[in-house]
Each structure stands twice: as C-alpha cells, then as structure tokens.
Amino acid sequence: MILFDFKELNAAKSWYGVNDTVMGGLSRSKLTISPLGYGMFSGHVSLANGGGFASVRCEFEPKNVSEFTGIYLELDRDRSKHYKVNLKDADTPQSTVYQAPMPDAKHQSFGVNGGSIIHWQRIEIPFTAFHPQCRGKPIERAEIDLSRLTSIGLVIGAQQSGDFALKIKSIGCY
Q1: Hey, is 104 helix, strand or coil?
Q2: How far apart are CA 149 and CA 87, in angstroms?
Q3: Residue 99 to residue 156: CA distance in whole angstroms
Q4: DSSP string across 37-101
Q5: Domain containing residue 158
Q6: CA atoms within 13 A on the CB side of 123
Q7: 151 versus 103: which is more confidently predicted?
C-alpha cells in the first residue's frame, strides 16, 4: 500500500517542518519535490542555542494499516547521517510520537536522474520497532493504534550538525 508517491508534484503540499526552533534552536528543514520525480527532505541542523534536530511531518485522516507488518521507504541517503521515522495515531498527544530508526536497506537499485547516479534503497521498519517518546525521551504508553494512523514524520537529530538531504521516492506499508 503506497501512502506517499513523491513523483506527484503536489505530494509535498501537506508536509511541514517541526524543528528545534520550537525550543530556541536554529535548525531548519523542508520537504520539496524535485522535477526529477522524488521528494527531498533537506535542511541544516544547528547545535546553537541547545538545538540539534530537524523534522518534517504530514498529518492525514485516520488510515487503517493494521493488516500490514510495517512501513517502507524508497530513498537515497547519505550514510553518514542517521534518520528516524515518527508515527502517530488518532489518540497520540501533541508532544508524543512513536519513533524508530531507519535501518539498513533491504533492497538496492541504481538509477540515473539528471545525469547523476542515485542509489535507491528500500528500507523496511516493522511496526513493532516503533516506541513511544515525548520530546525525545522514552515513555510508557500503549502500542500505536494501527487502525487509526494519522501522521508520518521524518527526523534527523542526535546532534548531527550540518547540511543534510534525504531523497525519497515513496513511503508505504508492507
């Protein structure tokens, strides 16, 4: 089941940034669509003013994904950067997310876009890998309600300062 296909020019419209600026930091991020047919989560992580994370998220009407095992992303990433995926259900409080790190790729392929080689990877994250967190700290909370998924987010943090760029073809459930 495809949730987001970034070949569509309007695919980034509903995504918005949530960065460390909410606590005085200076990081920035955005999700845009390349004319070459993929999404680009990019920006700059700054450690100034106690910051250190950047993220984008998309909220949507509740979707029932309980028949699936997890989330997949088709992407191209800089291996020196570490990203995470956030999920929310209809009952998740504003400051809480269910978070999992992006693992190594299950499948890899190469493509040429605009004269540059893109190393597409498919990563799979089982829903069981997502754990509740509030402002970056683990908390006790019931498992995510997969019959009412309402948000997906992408995060770079862990004090990784500097520019970043994550190319995404699609996000879906497997």
Answers
A1: coil
A2: 7
A3: 12
A4: S-EEEEEEE--GGG---EEEEEEEEEE--TTS-EEEEEEEE-TTS-EEEEEEETT--TTEEEEEE
A5: 2-173
A6: 19
A7: 151
Tokens representing 59? Answer: 């909220």
d(CA 8, CA 44): 25
> What is the C-alpha R_g of the chain?
16
CATH assignment of the domain containing 20: 2.60.120.430
Residue 114: its pLDDT value, please?
53
- Assign 95 a pLDDT band (cuts: 50, 70, 90): confident
Other Cβ atoms less than 10 A from the Cβ of 53: the count is 23
Which pTM does this prediction carry? 0.90
The number of distinct structural domains making up the chain is 1
CA 123 remoteness from chain centre? 12
Measuring CA to CA, how many Å separate 20 from each of 12, 17, 77?
A: 21, 10, 22
The 10 Å CB-count burial string (b at 16+, else e) for 126-139 is ebeebebbeeeeee
| Cα gap 141→147, rounded to integer Å | 17
